[in-house]
Design goal:
Layout: H1 6-16, H2 23-48, E1 51-53, H3 66-72, E2 77-79, H4 83-107, H5 111-125
Antiparallel strand pairs: 1-2
């Protein structure tokens, strides 16, 4: 089975939103789901230990091109998510996308258009898209 388009998902969310038609309710649920994603990632580090963080100052040398800098800059993450943590984080990300879609529905914003515009911006700005 192929994944639904963003528009199909957004339509599905719209049909399921009976209790969460309030903009304030959706805003608070969206914030809560975002915090749950952060907590799930933190627990992968602190409780499970499948990934580790080794954060240090990112050093940039002036003679390195932006393209070469991609090979120099580190993610600070070591290891890989175990299957359990991957499943938990994926579920939290899914819930986050659900409430993001609900927010788009309430505000009359099309998620496909948002992604398309952001993709165009990334294509145009390339490595200069530092937002």
């Amino acid at each position: 089975m192929s994944a639904p388009s963003l528009q199909a998902f957004q339509d599905q969310v719209s049909e399921l939103l009976l209790r969460h038609r309030s903009l304030l309710d959706v805003l608070s649920k969206n914030g809560q789901s975002s915090a749950s994603v952060n907590r799930a990632v933190a627990k992968a580090v602190t409780d499970c230990g499948c990934i580790e963080l080794h954060a240090t100052k990112q050093s940039f040398e002036s003679e390195v091109s932006l393209e070469e800098a991609k090979d120099v800059v580190r993610t600070h993450v070591r290891g890989e998510l175990c299957e359990n943590c991957r499943e938990i984080i994926s579920a939290e990300l899914g819930r986050n996308i659900f409430y993001m879609s609900a927010l788009c529905n309430l505000l009359g914003i099309n998620m496909d258009e948002v992604v398309q515009k952001e993709s165009q911006k990334c294509s145009t700005l390339g490595l200069f898209n530092l937002s």
